[in-house]
Write a structure and sequence with these properties.
Oligomer: single chain
Structural class: alpha/beta
Strand order of the largest sheet: 3-2-1-4-5
Strand content: 15-25%
CATH topology: Rossmann fold
Distance between the termini: 26 Å
Order of helices and strands: EHEHHEHEHHE
CATH architecture: 3-Layer(aba) Sandwich
Radius of gyration: 19 Å
Number of strands: 5
Shape: globular
CATH superfamily: HUPs
Largest sheet: 5 strands, parallel
Helix content: 40-55%
Number of domains: 1
Length: 170
Amino acid sequence: MADPEFTAPDSTAEPFIPKDVALKKALVVTDFSPDASAAIDYALKLAKLAGIQIALLHIVEVPTYHVHPEVVAASKRVDETLEAMRQRAAERLEAVAEVVRNEGINCMASVRLGIPTEEILTEAEMTKPDLIFIGNKGTSALARFLLGSTAERVVRYARCSVLVVRAKAE
């Protein structure tokens, strides 16, 4: 049953953005998953309405397990693999940034190596966004099950507001 106090907004009216909400910068985190893509879409829509600047961020996750000393000798190959992953991610992210820029939005893109939650929070501390957009589920279901979600930890520890976005079910 509809709420009698609620009236649907006029679709032709200007969007309502409260005066006391200062949105100038948004950090948009992506792992190229469907939920992260939805987060980019939300950020783009808000940027068009409010004129905010978007910073796109992707983290190439560095393995954090301990290895036997003999395996350390193979670390050059690991470094090369991580660098190749970083380069591919940078190319993909720059393509996304170009789409955002073509919409008339000021957009920067950066790729970092490390532990996703730590890198996101570090980037947020450095750039001081007003809002962080992040997808609900990333690409690793096993890691989410074992460790909890990156989004959950970002919501818990970020010093700014965080919008967790889900892709629409098909």
